[in-house]
Specification:
This protein is mostly helical and 256 residues long. It has one domain. The chain contains eight helices and two strands; from the N terminus they run αααββααααα.
Length: 256
């Protein structure tokens, strides 16, 4: 009877603490946490990985565990940490959506909207394409292991029982947002340059031949050139984004 009470007061509660941090992060992480993955699948994944994670981090959990109101505060702190980790991962993923929107605007396809399952919202058709490609590459290159390893290492950065430093968290979120936007614009530089040159050529043609309907000719050419360029540079865009995604998680892996 005493062994059962010890298990209930230590093992079950310790598992609950692991599940709160991990489950919150998994529910919004790229790939597993997207809207087209059924909620029960995400729940089973979080429950299973929390079971594997618990023996690793059990030594870092408070012993004995607090009771009553203090335990509720502990769960709330774990929820905040898990939400922070998942949010950073989602922000880094948004760089591809930004790049897709910029490419769509430059190729005159921004009005072609579709449901982007990665963000559960409407987005550009090219943004949906590059986002789904990025999620596939996350698993193909095993970068999702870095996300899970970051959760394990987060127990060293955010010890259980300590109040999360909201100021530092906010700073990381702001830096991640700025980095994601910068990467999203930088990888679209070829489109920005070529389309600007095309607009200049259209302006010159309008002056030289005012009777020609320039937009009737230029728009199909603009779409064709953008699609050809996308086929040429999409691999480079993905490689740059994967590198920046890995750098974005360096703070969880002890890389600054």
């Amino acid at each position: 009877m005493n062994d059962l009470e010890t298990f209930l007061t230590t093992g079950v509660f310790a598992y609950l603490l692991c599940f709160v941090r991990l489950g919150t992060a998994v529910m919004i992480m790229p790939g597993v946490g997207t809207s087209f993955i059924p909620p029960n699948v995400r729940l089973y994944f979080a429950l299973g990985f929390a079971l594997v994670l618990m023996p690793i981090v059990q030594a870092k959990l408070p012993n004995p565990l607090p009771s009553n109101f203090a335990f509720v505060i502990l769960i709330l702190a774990e929820f905040i940490v898990g939400l922070f980790i998942g949010t950073v991962a989602r922000i880094l993923m948004s760089a591809l959506d930004t790049a897709g929107m910029v490419i769509s605007m430059q190729s005159s396809l921004s009005n072609a909207q579709l449901f982007n399952p990665a963000f559960a919202s409407q987005g550009s058709i090219i943004g949906g394409f590059v986002t789904l490609t990025g999620m596939a590459l996350l698993f193909a290159t095993n970068l999702h292991h870095m996300f899970l390893l970051g959760i394990v290492n987060s127990y060293n950065i955010f010890p259980v029982g300590d109040v999360p430093d909201m100021g530092s968290m906010s700073e990381v979120v702001v830096k991640s947002t700025a980095a994601a936007f910068a990467v999203g614009v930088q990888v679209t530089a070829p489109f920005l340059i070529i389309i600007v040159l095309m607009y200049v050529a259209m302006g010159v043609m309008t002056k030289l031949m005012p009777q020609v309907q320039v937009f009737m000719i230029a728009i199909p050419v603009q779409i064709l050139v953008s699609l050809i360029m996308l086929a040429m540079v999409v691999s480079a865009i993905m490689l740059v984004w994967l590198n920046e995604y890995q750098k974005g998680f360096s703070f969880l892996l002890g890389g600054g």
